[in-house]
């Protein structure tokens, strides 16, 4: 039991020195973000990178598409030239460019059991992630209610 408490306390994000500020709270912690390509997810990702550059890593769960790998989707998310798409990351490119290297795509799908994660990715996330932001949702408004609830609330 003592060993378990030591491990839990070592991974805690609520140390008194970390909770003095938002930036201090997230410093040296790894985050998993679902829904990073959506409106809310983009805002969360931008805010974390801009305000908390000492974050250890941000893993974003991405669904591969037929014509794009998760790596291509990440690049599109960060570098998309369309107006109002990637410009939210411009200040980060200037002030904290190294934080962009801390974003890691993870192949998954929130509508699948165990988030559609491979066993290897699941273990990696369990061992590394301290904080989870679930911002994914379905945007199909004619989806059966049980599917929409399952995806949105998981």
UniProtKB/TrEMBL annotation:
One of its GO terms (molecular function) is alcohol-forming long-chain fatty acyl-CoA reductase activity. Coiled coil: none annotated. SUPFAM superfamilies: NAD(P)-binding Rossmann-fold domains. Its EC number is 1.2.1.84. Keywords: Lipid biosynthesis, Lipid metabolism, NADP, Oxidoreductase. InterPro entries: FAR, FAR_NAD-bd, NAD(P)-bd_dom_sf. Residues 33-151 form the Thioester reductase (TE) domain. Gene3D superfamilies: NAD(P)-binding Rossmann-like Domain. GO terms for biological process: long-chain fatty-acyl-CoA metabolic process. It holds the Pfam family NAD_binding_4. It comes from the Eukaryota. It catalyses: a long-chain fatty acyl-CoA + 2 NADPH + 2 H(+) = a long-chain primary fatty alcohol + 2 NADP(+) + CoA. GO terms for cellular component: peroxisome. Belongs to the fatty acyl-CoA reductase family. Catalyzes the reduction of fatty acyl-CoA to fatty alcohols. This is Fatty acyl-CoA reductase.
């Amino acid at each position: 039991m003592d060993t378990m408490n030591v491990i839990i306390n070592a991974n805690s994000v609520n140390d008194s020195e970390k909770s003095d500020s938002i930036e201090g709270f997230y410093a040296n912690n790894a985050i998993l973000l679902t829904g990073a390509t959506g409106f809310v997810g983009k805002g969360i990702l931008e805010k974390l990178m801009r305000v908390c550059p000492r974050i250890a890593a941000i893993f974003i769960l991405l669904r591969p598409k037929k014509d794009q790998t998760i790596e291509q989707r990440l690049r599109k998310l960060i570098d998309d030239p369309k107006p109002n798409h990637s410009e939210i990351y411009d200040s980060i490119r200037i002030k904290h460019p190294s934080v962009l290297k801390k974003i890691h795509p993870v192949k998954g799908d929130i509508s699948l059991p165990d988030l559609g994660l491979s066993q290897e990715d699941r273990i990696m996330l369990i061992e590394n992630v301290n904080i989870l932001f679930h911002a994914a949702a379905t945007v199909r408004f004619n989806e059966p209610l049980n599917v929409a609830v399952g995806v949105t609330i998981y």
